[in-house]
Specification:
- Helices cover about 15% and strands about 35% of the residues.
- It is an alpha+beta fold.
- It has a domain at about 5-35 and about 50-120 and about 145-180: Fumarylacetoacetase-like, C-terminal domain (Fumarylacetoacetate hydrolase, domain 2).
- The strands form four sheets. The chain has a six-stranded mixed β-sheet with strand order 2-1-12-5-6-9, with helices on one face.
- It is globular.
- The structure holds magnesium ion.
- Magnesium ion binds near residues 54, 56, 85, 174 and 175.
Length: about 200
Amino acid sequence: MKIICIGRNYADHAKEMKSELPTEPIFFLKPDTALLKNGNPFFYPEFTKDLHYECELVVQIQKVGKNIAEKFAPKYYSKVTLGIDFTARDLQQNCKEKGLPWEIAKAFEHSAPISNKFIEISSLDFENLTFELYKNGEKVQTGHTSDMIFSIDKLIAYVSKFMTLKTGDLLFTGTPAGVGPVQIGDKLEGFLNEEMMFEFNIR
Ligand code: MG
């Protein structure tokens, strides 16, 4: 399976990164080895000094498809969860300045912690979901699906123009404002509509 991550899908986050608003979705991939599950601790990598959390809504692809029309996109996902797109911000900044790919900053081991809970979208008011990230008990990010620049359906249509989506693929849908650094000893907790989705420690 592959992990597809969307960049700059919330205007307030694009603004805090001093990035322009995209006119088309931006995406990149993480390998399956990026996943970190079951509340296992994340070990701070030695190659960065500025590791940032980015809490994101994650959609699970449930059917193989390519060139999916936006109106048919809802047939390709039915479950949602919450995860973190860990980013080595110092390496990413260097890659951006040099026009290099982002993999060393984004696709490293365990850079995609994810909840074990997948929630049926049909049980939710999907257009009005709220998700939150707490660091050491303090709320640091709040996201609303209503603030996404590109809807899930648009993202699926766009990404599937370039690559086949397969059952079990995960789509990280972008982070809202409030991204920031973590340190060894920090605890991260994610909530979706006030339900706890994950908690783990940085070691
Ligand atoms: Mg992200």
